[in-house]
Design goal:
With 282 residues, the chain is α/β, with parallel strands linked by helices. It is built from ten helices and twelve strands. Helix 4 packs parallel to helix 5 and helix 8 packs parallel to helix 9. The protein starts with a strand and ends with a helix. Bound molecules: FE3-S4 cluster.
Length: 282
Amino acid sequence: MEVTVAKSAGFCFGVKRAVELVYEEVGKAQKIYTLGPIIHNEQVVRDLEEKGVQVLHSVEEIEAGEDATVIIRSHGVPKKTAVALQEKGIRIVDATCPFVKKIHNIVQAKKEEGYEIVVVGSAKHPEVKGTCGWCDNQCHVVETVQEARDCPLDKQKKVCVVAQTTFNYKKFEDIVDILSKKSYDIFIMNTICNATEERQTEAGTIARKSDAMIVIGGKHSSNTQKLYEICKAECADTHFIQTLDDLDLKLFQSFRSVGITAGASTPNNIIKEVQSYVRQEH
Ligand code: F3S
């Protein structure tokens, strides 16, 4: 049997880097903290907890001067959080995804140049909260076309528009169309990351040429659900599993080619486990 694993399966570059940075820190300081869970995957967070990594929810939980390392996750944090951490005098490992850091730098610089800042994204998302914190929260957050219409911009003022990295591209275009009519001088930076799109495109391509497809990910993970739908449309024998335990190998016995992909929060070891299991049994 031919088994094809999607190269883009599982963690994106930024999350992979953040998780690796946490594992590298284990044992290096008396206490290791992450500010918020490093990833939305219970197994990974539990495994790290067993290795002594604690999840904190605010900077206040850290005592000044303690022998500790705090890791900032890939979403990034507002500037005031970064400063508050520095003031605690502890070691900081900044695992903010470089693509997110780039957005922080843009909004900070453009704010200083006198631009009005618009962040296209969800105000509730930690990444957007972080971004807003790099231009003193003096920005407009726009998530819908209606919010773009209602956004109070001054035609004479320079405007800088950035996007949440996981924002939908089509929606971003629609919003930008509206915002563009609201200023004579508008600087648009499409900061959407293509990791999700790449994962989806590759999943569809593999599903199309496979007899069966396995999609690995959390039951409640919306990006995994989306991957499943894409694969199912291309390959009738698509199976959604959380772990190896959900895999009924008998179902795969008659297939010549099987494809494997995984959602954004699925660790590599689970993907590998499924891959070798499918290979071994045939
Ligand atoms: Fe991942 Fe960074 Fe893109 S965290 S989704 S690679 S912006």
